[in-house]
Amino acid sequence: MDFRSISTWLTLVVLVCLFAPAESYKLKVLAATRECVQEHATEAGDLITGSFLATAGDGSQKRFFGGAERFDFTVIDPNHNTVYSAKRKAEHKFEVKAEQSGYYTMCFYNQGRVPAYVLYHAHVGHHISHDRAMKEHIEPLEESLTNLKEDLARLSEEYYYQKRREETHRLTMESSHDRVIIWSLGEAALLVGCAVFQVVYIRRLFDKKEMRVNV
Length: 215
Description:
The chain has three helices and eight strands, in the order H-E-E-E-E-E-E-E-E-H-H. By secondary structure, the protein is α+β, with helices and mostly antiparallel strands. A hairpin with a 5-residue loop joins strand 4 and strand 5. It is elongated.
C-alpha cells in the first residue's frame, strides 16, 4: 500500500468519524419515577462519556434554566453497584471508566411533581495503549486510527453537548425577552389608562363646578 492510498484511507476514516450521526435519546420521565438506559462496555478500560439536558414537561426547552426540572443521575455497573452519581442536575456531563465488561445502566430519577424530558447522549470508546499494541502485534497505523476514532467521538460528544446547551440558552433568552416586552406593553397600557382616567375625572369635576356656579 503506497503513501497516497494510506492518505486517502485516513481521510475517509476521519470524514466518516466526523460526520457519522450521533446516537441520542429523548426520555420522558414521570414525576417521582425512574427511567434507565444501558450502555455496553466491551472490555475493562472502556470509557463511557456522555451528557444530558433536562427540559420541561411539554418537551420544550424554553423553561430549561427557569424551571424546576432536575434529575438524580446514577450509573450502575454489571454487579449492580453504583459507580457514579449526581444529584439534582438540570444539565450534566459525565465520564465513567468501566472496571469490567458488561452493561452499565444509566438511571434518571425525576424529583419534580410533573413529567419532564431528558435529552441524553453517550459514547463508549476504548484507547489502545502502545504497550498493549506491541504485545498483540497491532500495526501502528491501526493503533493510531483506533485512538483517533475515539478522540473524534469524544469531540463529537462535546460538540453535541455544547450545541444543546446553546439552544437552551437561546430559547430561554428569547422567552425572557418576549415576557419582558409583554410586561412593558402592559405597564405602558396601564399608565395610559390611568392618565386617561385622571383627565376624564378631573374634567368631570370642573364640569360639575361650572354647573353649580351657573345655577
